[in-house]
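User: Show me a protein chain along with its predicted structure.
Assistant: Here is one chain, sequence first, then structure tokens.
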Amino acid sequence: MSDYIPSPSGWVAEQVELYEGSQGKEGTTLRDTGLPVIIVTNTGRKTGAIRKTPLMRAVDGDNYILVASRGGAPDHPLWYHNLVADPDVEIRDEAKIVKMRAREIVDAAEKKRLWGIAVAAFPPYQEYQDKTDRAIPVFLAEAI
């Protein structure tokens, strides 16, 4: 099994540690927003190491919508490239852990529908899209 490499972003690494260390009882919201997050575990495409990222919790039935917003930055987040290279992920939603496969949504109608759900869960997503020239990628993580 590969080693886990915590995020170089201090608050991200701390949130993952708190979330997982408490078995999903603490650290389950994004900072002071009160909005729920999940932990997405994937494999680093260059290192092969385990990577963990808190993402906003947006669901479509039993599936999770993963939005590669990076706060509206001009480049995709690193985890986006990891999922393109290896779509198998593990999702932790509080105490529940599920193995899933993420697929990038390319169909315009499906993306529009999922985007609406994601924005309802975390309204700043629309602001992020409005401030960047790139189309923010959306993945759907489905049970395997």
